[in-house]
Amino acid sequence: MYAFTFERPATLAAAAKLAAAGAKPLAGGQTLLASMKLRLANPENLIDLGGIRELSGIRREGSQLVVGAMTRHAEVAASEEVKSAIPALAELAGGIGDRQVRNLGTIGGSLANNDPAACYPAAVLGLGATVKTTHREIPADEFFTGLFGTALEDGELITAVRFPIPRKAAYMKFRQPASRFALVGVFVAQGSSQVRVAVTGGGNGVFRHQELEQALTRNFTPQAAAEVTISAEGLSSDLHASAAYRANLIGVMAQRAVARALA
Length: 263
What we know:
By secondary structure, this protein is of the alpha+beta class. It has helices at 12-20, 32-37, 73-78, 80-85, 87-94, 99-104, 107-113, 120-126, 140-143, 210-218, 222-226, 243-262, and strands spanning 5-7, 24-26, 45-48, 58-61, 64-68, 130-133, 137-139, 144-146, 149-150, 158-164, 168-175, 182-190, 195-200, 207-208. The model has no long low-confidence stretch (mean pLDDT 96).
């Protein structure tokens, strides 16, 4: 590891000031520290957000669930508030990585990084959540901009995520055995008027699947999902799976997610 400046502010205001000056935020560090060791990233100044209490915690506000940006995956998985309001979110968090990753990784860090095979982006997009930052509130449909890309501006920090509580929801993923990232993951959420379906692991970042959404809005059953033809166009093909294989997985995981939501 090379030499760098490390600061651990106690308040969000102090962290925002450092970020505005060009320092790199450190949340759980599950991606950033590994990237620094490999010299894929070489920030000169780091801000550890772990000491800012106002960035952690889970609370229910009416018909929404609010999760602080520095809330650990393990905390979301174990939260009775989350299990009661959105069980699918607790199950998703409990299936991220391994125990060490879940005890260090944070929801804010995952969203800011936007790995194309990460699980949390599927939940945020599938539930139509809102990402709160030090500058504004960003709807999920506007937050994710492609491979490792987000709408975040330089110096902008995620502070919390507001999840609408759905009627039914479920997440199913086919794990890549070594990394436990999603080879394909599908989050299905039934709201009051429509169904949202978000896919991760398929290609250039998380995306909504319009054909599945339309079919499931008409008829929220596994059979309706099975009747949708999933195109392989635009899906990634690598040593783990071909685009055609991923297309088939999207259909299978969607059917299983609906069945899980209805169970």
